[in-house]
Amino acid sequence: MSVEVPSRRSDAAPSGRVNGVRRMLRGPRPEAVPVLVGRACALVGVLDIAAGVFPRFRHSRMHAIAEVLPGALGPFAAALSLSTGVLLLLLAHGLKRGKRRAWRAAVALLPAGAVAQFTYRHSLVGVLISLALLAPLLRHRDQFDALPDPRSRWRALANFVLMSAGSLMLGLLIVSVHAERIIGDPSLADRITHVIYGLFGFEGPVDYQGNTSWTVAFSLGALGLLTAVTTIYLAFRPEHPAARLTEEDETRLRALLERHGHRDSLGHFALRRDKAVVFSPSGKAAVTYRVVSGVMLASGDPIGDVEAWPGAIEQFMDEAKAHSWTPAVMGCSETGGEVWTRETGLDALELGDEAVVDVKDFSLAGRAMRNVRQMVKRIERAGYETRVRRVRDLGEAELERIRRAADDWRGTDTERGFSMALGRVGDPADGDCLIATAHKADEDPGPYGDLKAILHFVPWGTDGASLDLMRRDRSADPGMNELLIVAALQAAPRFGIERVSLNFAMFRAALARGEKIGAGPVLRAWRGLLVFLSRWFQIESLYKFNAKFRPRWEPRFVVYRVSADLPRIGFAAMQAEGFVNLALPLPRSLRRRGPAGRRPCPHGTTTERNVRAA
């Protein structure tokens, strides 16, 4: 008896084809629609701009109808096509992130772009592209529900500068693309003048044959009007600045730090007042963050009870999802990285190491400390003395002098630091902070008396301190930083401090392993790149400076969603740390001073932690 077994392949093939057809009919996954629509909008924007800049009619039946339409229709449609294209390019990024306001604007602009394509280029393909893009926007409108980002008046200025530059370049292209219709041979200066006049709605020195003058004029006028309208909108819309810690938030964070602050050396930096905070439902844990270029950037471990960390992390991720921000964590510990990755499915990458010195093991004796010992002795013989005190023990006059010195001795106009910086010195609420100062009695004291260098430490629980700020007078002798670190470590037992966290060394393990015998070519090449980048970011110098004090190294991690986010996270971190400053700071003489003579810390600036070891 034989049994016929049906072919599985013959059944599976039609089924596979049917499933493939069904997937095509269903379209893309809803969660993928914002990214796809954003990219398509950018493409349509480019096509609309091309339609406005390169006015070539298609040879079709519509061409005969166009010849009997009013002559001014072409120039108006060209301007409409150009404006729609520019606006769609501006909206593309917001659509990728699922922003509701970008969706509303795109739904209004796409039909306008279709009308411009139809009336000016008479392109049915252009009309179909715009309408085909409009369909998924309407069908998947529930995917575009992200809340707006924090914003300020700086966006208006940035928009004016960028749009003006873009309009000038695009205007030159519009003026030059009609070369066969230009009367005479105008110079580049004449063409630039014509563009500038046209952006303000005036006729320039370049003349054209026929209706081309009107086309160019309306296109340039549209660009100028678009620049003005978008700038005015950004300047006068309701301002929603980046969140700040409220007094209530700061009080709650200080209570958590009082009970759990010993866990993380970066815990006290959560009290920066240019950070926002989310608390766990129980209120026993919190995550502080700042939003930079669409990245929701947290720093260090969550504050509070470890068992309540998942609740705070969930609130953080919900906030990131609601605004379509990219979540990231900078400088968390190994324990923090494990909790973040376990609770969120994010990934972690070792970023570097934190130098921690155990006070009981620190000594200047021995061959390994010879260089530091000799430098400290030489400076002390030069007449310098050190003082280490709590902030609460300093008088207001001396604190004010220290604040002014710290501000004026800063090496850059932009303060640096984010994850390991407090952003203020001598605040009454920070009475537990330590200040180490170096003094030298000069015959001609400067504006800060005999003060020559400053180190500022924040509390790390009740038995630790974490280095925050290092500043020195540039005219002082080399080695001020070494002198004050040694003084702080020697004075630490007097304040009940058993451990001191120094600077963070990025990619420390790669630098250390890459210089050893037997390191492979890949590791040596990576170390060589880090040494090259150290010319600007002091990667190697920070590592070598920290290594002088024979610390133990605690790894720190960056937590991220996907590898494709790393460049964006890196750029946002550089902005937060002050290495990239997109704002236009006021001159120091024009900065408004706050209470007690302090200059307020502007949004996006931080306290420099870079060491300039002499």
Quick structural overview:
With 614 residues, the chain is α+β, with helices and mostly antiparallel strands. The protein is built from 19 helices and 12 strands.
Strand fraction band? 5-15%
Largest beta sheet, briefly? 12 strands, mixed
Query: How would you sum up the global shape?
Result: elongated
The level of helicity is 40-55%
Low-confidence stretches: 1-14, 57-73, 583-614
SS content category: alpha+beta
Number of strands: 12
Round the mean pLDDT to the nearest integer and report it.
78
| Number of helices, counting only DSSP H or I runs of 4 residues or more | 19
How much is the radius of gyration in Å? 31 Å
The separation of the N and C termini measures: 95 Å
Topology:
Elements: H1 8-26, H2 33-53, H3 61-66, H4 73-96, H5 100-121, H6 124-139, H7 154-177, H8 188-199, H9 212-236, H10 247-260, E1 276-279, E2 285-292, E3 295-299, E4 303-304, H11 309-323, E5 326-332, H12 334-344, E6 347-358, H13 370-381, E7 384-390, H14 396-408, E8 434-440, E9 451-459, E10 464-472, H15 480-491, E11 499-506, H16 508-514, H17 521-537, H18 539-547, E12 552-560, H19 566-577
Helix pairs in contact: 2-4, 2-5, 2-6, 4-5, 4-9, 5-6, 7-8, 7-9, 11-12, 13-15, 16-17
